[in-house]
Amino acid sequence: MGLDKSPVVLGKDHFRQLYQTELEQEAEWLRRGAREKVNSIEQFLRAHDLHPRRLVELGCGVGAVITECQRRSLAATYMGVDYSQEAVDYLRAHSPGIEAVQGDITDPQFRVDEPSDVVVVSHVLEHLEEPARFLHSMQRALKFSHAVIEVPLEDLMASRLKARLKDRTGNVAGHVQFFTSTSFEALIESCGLRIVDRRNYAPVLDMDTIRFVSQKDGLALHRYWLKAVTNHYLPQWLMPWWKRLYYAHHAVLCTAR
């Protein structure tokens, strides 16, 4: 049975429903997007001569990002944490060598005792009604030296114009936070983290991925071509302006103050 796209499903409930009804499709979509996200992690590690022994991903879902980190041998040991039991079971079954833990990082009882060199939070904060609470909980529950945090930027000029015409909370991705690089970095620093590096890029989807995600989300033909234009062609033709005006991803490397 496919995911019911008609109700607005946001935040944690969005992924809870996805993992219960479209686990394999969602895993494939996340796998396709993981490479560029892990590029952010790898570039930060190399630029700052970091060689983590232990890498932990919070909100890892089915493990696309941390599995790609493992494939590239970015650390010696790996742990993925997610509140969804379905996602954690999938990670355990498909990625041997990664410790998979089910838990809610914002639960006061949740704690990871073993210190971590790098904590990854990749495309999680935009799904949370209280992202600051998550970031504070991360610092309470884990001991770490560096954190890599990445979000999509969806409050740029073109997005704000579209928001006047259509309620953007009705998005199929389940986002409830819409960031600019300024608002995202302000959130990070307000939670007691110090930004030491940043990366801004616009993802470009290949046409096979466009076809896959259009089928996955049940898009009509005109929306398929709109996605092809806005996610494949225009980002390549207009890259410098695209990242400023329409859409980008923004990653930061942080340390605790």
UniProtKB/TrEMBL annotation:
One of its GO terms (biological process) is methylation. It holds the Pfam family Methyltransf_23. Keywords: Methyltransferase, Transferase. The keyword Transferase applies. Gene3D superfamilies: Vaccinia Virus protein VP39. GO terms for molecular function: methyltransferase activity. It comes from the Bacteria. This is Trans-aconitate methyltransferase.
